[in-house]
Amino acid sequence: MKTILVIMSLLLSTSVVAADATCDATAKDKKLAGAALTSFMKKCEKDAASKCAADAKARNLHGAAQTSFTTKCLKDATGP
User: Fold this and answer.
1) C-alpha span between 63 and 69 (Å, rounded)
2) Contact in structure between 64 and 2 (CB atoms under 8 Å)
3) What mean pLDDT do residues 47-57 have?
4) By the 8 A CB rule, do 76 and 15 touch?
């Protein structure tokens, strides 16, 4: 039963993150390079991490489910 809940939450999170552009895509659209790119990516990754952590907490995930959810959420938010 927990496995089904984890899978469902991962599917829902993917659809929510897909609505926003990834950090990489946004940086390419803005044609950032050098220090501007580094600064933008750090901020974007920090924002994504806090959003993913809040989403995991809202879904009441703990342990391996939280780690799995957060890892996938960050990967989806930041890009390849």
Assistant:
1) 10
2) no
3) 95
4) no
Round to whole Å and give the CA distance between 71 and 49: 9
* Identity of the residue numbered 37: L
Rounded Cα distance between 54 and 52, Å, is: 5
pTM (predicted TM-score) = 0.69
In the structure encoding, which two tokens stand for residue 62, read together?
């703990």
Instruction: Report residue 80's pLDDT band, with 50, 70 and 90 as the boundaries.
Output: confident
1-46: per-residue pLDDT in tens?
Answer: 555 545 555 555 444 444 468 999 999 999 999 999 999 999 999 9
DSSP state string for 30-64: TT--HHHHHHHHHHHHHHHHHHHHHHHHHTT--HH
| CA angle (70, 19, 46) in 5-degree steps | 40
- CA-nearest of 35, 23, 36 to 73 is 23
